[in-house]
Amino acid sequence: MTRIRRGYIARRRRTKIRLFASTFRGAHSRLTRTTFQQKMRALVSAHRDRGRQKRNFRRLWITRINASARQARPSVVNSYYPELVYSSYCRSIHDMYKRNSRIINRKMLAQIAISNMNCLYMISNKIIK
User: Fold this and answer.
1) Confidence class of residue 87 from pLDDT cuts 50, 70 and 90?
2) Considering the domain boundaries, does residue 2 fall inside one?
């Protein structure tokens, strides 16, 4: 039998996989089978961690809002403004949902808590009244 020249499709597929895994170390970037396994593993991890990243950021925002509310309470609350700042995160979020003021989400509130504490006080006073 005569020799048959193979096409370019398999080579093109392997090249694509190698380009994806070019930054991997050792055999993970050189051997085709290992490269394919590492590519699958990387894609699974990326898919899983996108959801995990959303959870982690939400936890961070909640922690920041709660810390700013609890930190400012003893020094700011006085006889003139007894209801100036909430005592905790859960009360403030509960009142926000009770008043249907969902314009500001947790991400915005956390950013405000970091950058401008007075603005956070004004928002909390609006929610109370």
Assistant:
1) low
2) no
